[in-house]
Amino acid sequence: MTSTDRPTGSTTAKGPAGAAPQALPPTAAAGVTQASIVKKTAPKTDYKPSDVSPQRRVQRRYSVRLWSVRHSRALEWFYARFADLFLLLHPLWKGIGYGRVEAPVKFVEKRVKGFMFDCRMCGQCVLSSTGMSCPMNCPKQLRNGPCGGVRANGNCEVEPDMPCVWVKAWEGSRNMVKGDAILAVQKPVDQSLRETSAWLRVTARAAAQREKASEPA
Ligand code: SF4
Prior knowledge:
InterPro entries: DUF5981 (IPR022026). This is Methylenetetrahydrofolate reductase C-terminal domain-containing protein. It comes from Aquibium pacificus. The protein is mainly alpha-helical. The chain has one domain. It contains 7 helices and 2 strands. The radius of gyration is 23 Å and the shape is elongated. About 20% of the residues are buried. Iron/sulfur cluster binds next to α5.
């Protein structure tokens, strides 16, 4: 479509055949966002969910999260050593039983990654591919890059005070040795793996691959 094909004047949406066209909200003026329009038009009630209010998000979490992104290269190095250690302990995990060690490992994983990355325990960690910025903190939970709503200052359109996790992911990935992993397409989140240990999953998978590779052809 060329610029001359575009309709001029106010924007309208076509309704069912024969129906009068519906007027859409006017083009966002400066400072007016989709989020503020939704907020303004939402029915007023006494119930305001505290956990999901952007205003009540803990600022400190952003600080720690942003620190992790800034130190993505060091964390990449540390995570590689940590994964090696976990793999080394595979015989122990297997001896005790992966099912039995899951609870204590998950307890530690949830707290450590929760503090460092604001981890949501999706169970399919992609931090090493996303510059140490957890994509599950994106309100839309996008796993393959930002939406079109990133603000000019690099913040989220849904949570205006929060830096877009994908803007940060790109910055973090540029510091990492294997930062180009951010270009790989991620699979959709498997919700059945929520609240499970990504550490144990990665370890068990690596152990299985290692055993398979050592089998005679
Ligand atoms: S990608 Fe998943 S497992 Fe990794 S930090 Fe984010 S929520 Fe946690």
